[in-house]
Amino acid sequence: MAEDTRATKFSFEFWLRKTLEWGQISTSESQQDVCLHLPELQEFLVQIYGALKHMNCTTAVQEFPLIGQLLGRLCWNPFVIGYDECQKILMWCLCCLYSGEPQNPVELKANSWIQSSLCHLLSFSGLGNHDMDINHFISTLGFTSADYYSKLIENVVLSLVTELSRNPFNGISRQQSFSSRVTSISLLCVPLITLPDVMPLLEALLNYHEDGLQEVLHPEFLEAVNEAVLHKKIYLPESGVLQLWLRHLPSLEKAVLQNLKTFISSHPSSLKKMKSMIKGSLLHRAACHPAVFRTIDEIFKNALLETDGAPEVMTVMQVFTQCFLQAYYENNKQHKFPMKVYFPHNPHSLVMAFLQHPSDLPAIDVHRHLTHIAEMLKTAEAEHIGSCGGLFENWFLFVHFGEWADIAAEQLLSQAESSDALLWLLVFYYKPGDENQQRTQTMVEARLVCDHLTTLSRTPTISVTDLQIAISSKTKTRQPGTSLVVMHLIISFLLFTPAGHVVAREFIADFVVAGSEIPEITGLLTRLANRVSQLGMKYQRTVKLVNDLLQKLKCGV
Known about the structure:
Blueprint: H1 2-22, H2 28-52, H3 57-63, H4 67-75, H5 78-81, H6 86-97, H7 105-122, H8 132-140, H9 145-166, H10 172-188, H11 199-206, H12 219-230, H13 238-247, H14 249-265, H15 271-281, H16 283-286, H17 290-306, H18 311-330, H19 348-355, H20 363-383, H21 388-400, H22 403-414, H23 420-430, H24 436-457, H25 464-472, H26 480-496, H27 498-514, H28 518-532, H29 540-555
């Protein structure tokens, strides 16, 4: 091995002199000399790479003090990088010199120079626009500049992808050496991430795995890829995005938070548009992996706690859950994960009850199913008296499947008498943490409103004044959570009863003038618009009505 190194050092001195002689390729003699020596030069570069791949940057500089000068001159010589595999081998040599964790100013400076050299080698503009001789050289080969650079990038990327897929080293020490190279390659890709031709290399890096527990891809690379994905600068395949988020928790968290903010702030006019946004983010499909789902769920949980159960956060959660379930069942044949893995903190029977889709139940069984859900929640609450943990987890599960709260409100207004179980369910949805006395008071207030609305639904004609006076006379001391329960009942009355249809537009117009709880009303109407659109032709008038009401709220008229 020492003898090989001595021979390489002797050759090194020869080739360094040659590069100095060649200088700028301005004469035909120097060009001919370069071409004459290219096969031997390539053999030498292979030898250099064989020595460098077992060294770190400091050791390499100690063995070959002028290695940077030699590689730098070769990188800028178009005859060299245009010959066979020379550019690929130069790329490998630069990766060997790169320090994944620079320890001193020299290594930092070297890293900067290496990144610049690689950008020069791989970018479309790095070679062609600064030297007419280079452009002339390319044209004499019969290429346009774009074709030439594209082919160079394609060859280098292909060679690196092949190297990653083969991973030729065996044994612990050699594997560690290759891991270090993978780390360096990933960091070197950072300035090149948005180049389309580099995409196969990004995918190969994201799909590269070793047996060890330590992440081999540099965090800066993972963060840069995530930024490019989030800002739509690159479009990774779904498998690449999943690998990115599985490998790097901060990237997943940033993606969830940024998308959650977008979903809320963009005020989509329908849940259909929100679903489209969620599906465009790929988070719902990534969530089919339990680790990703639980991370996303934890962020939703914190958002609910920080916003005190803001309705807009609850709505995003519900739509996200619907998208996730669609993706989960579409891939059910390939899935190895049972549903209890996604909701480990809830009774499995409760999870399965919420998972039952309303459209799969006969109409006569819907009320019974809601009552069953309410009883299970009551039982779970009784088992967790004095402990908020279990109670919160079950309420959090309910929020995922908030459509059942909408159905409970519909059912309450369609029954001859208000159902205590369904009313309790609606109150629990909006005020889960109430003490018994508080919940009893909320139930009393909500039952009065519910009974009054039921009576109005059987009245031949009603006015907005009748509706407003009847409600306001019972709501003067109402708490915020109770107001949301009452508002849910009112909106359900307007949409699902003939009497409500008559006064709905006028009521909403007056309500907009009053300016109270408009965001909550808009969110609720948006959810209900999605629900009634799934109920068939029988509800076409209701669909038109809810869309008109949403338009009124949007225009503030």
